[in-house]
Amino acid sequence: MHAGHITAEAITAEVIPELCKSCGKCAEVCPYNAISVDVKAKQPAKITTAACSGCGTCAAECPFGAITTHHFTDPQITQQIDALLEDRPGDKILTFACNWCSYAGADYAGVSRLQYPPNARLIRTMCSGRVADSFIWHAFRKGAPVILVSGCHIGDCHYIDANHWTEKRIGKVRAKMEKRGIRPERLQLEWISAAEGVRFAEVMTRMEALRQSVTPAEIAATVAALEKKTAAAG
Ligand code: SF4
Ligand code: SF4
Predict the structure, then answer these.
(1) pLDDT one-digit tens code per residue, 59-107
(2) In this structure, which ligand is nearest to the CA of 54?
(3) Is residue 160 domain-shared with residue 50, that is, in the same domain?
(4) Element containing residue 215 per DSSP (H, E)
(5) What is the pTM assigned to this prediction?
(6) Is 97 part of any domain?
(7) Of 25, 29, 57, 70, which is best to mutate to test ligand 2, by the most ligand atoms within 8 angstroms of its C-beta?
């Protein structure tokens, strides 16, 4: 403030007012109190862009798809999933890695020339909090045998505590997987820091063992169950 200006993030969230139902969830999860919602007056949520750090947690938690995150929109991430699973999806380890910790950990494993399974496929998000449950369901529907969501350790989140919401969300998705007859172990959550190249390689080796335990019949049953659910939802 003394300098007379602030440096704003280029990656910020934006509300799509016509889709907003004023439920208040986004304001509840924002680690920076950057969102205000007048729930009683049923006014659309408002984001103070200067306060937004772009973690994307609000976009992942909005139940109505009423928030988009610039440069990490839902279609952009979904298209990456489609591209990575286009050919022989059953052979891939689909991994969401946060920019600050896990993606850097993967880099570190690479420059350290550590051995890890070559079929790992990474999608970078700024925070693990951006990984919406819809991305996970979409990837399973596309035939992913296993999915890893990875981020900074609890207490080390670049976005204060956004990864607490990741943890809660993954717990909910795994509970739903169980109800739908899908093995919850097929979705893993791991905290990997930028300095943990060795840990990244170890986690990937475990993911590969898990992937090999998933049979083509199991993948086909998951795809059929999720497509049936999508069709029923209209
Ligand atoms: S979570 Fe979505 S629907 Fe709810 S107030 Fe925020 S933007 Fe609106
Ligand atoms: S939750 Fe994250 S992306 Fe959304 S407004 Fe807050 S800081 Fe910005």
Answers:
(1) 999 999 999 999 999 999 999 999 999 999 999 999 999 999 999 999 9
(2) 2
(3) no
(4) none
(5) 0.95
(6) yes
(7) 57
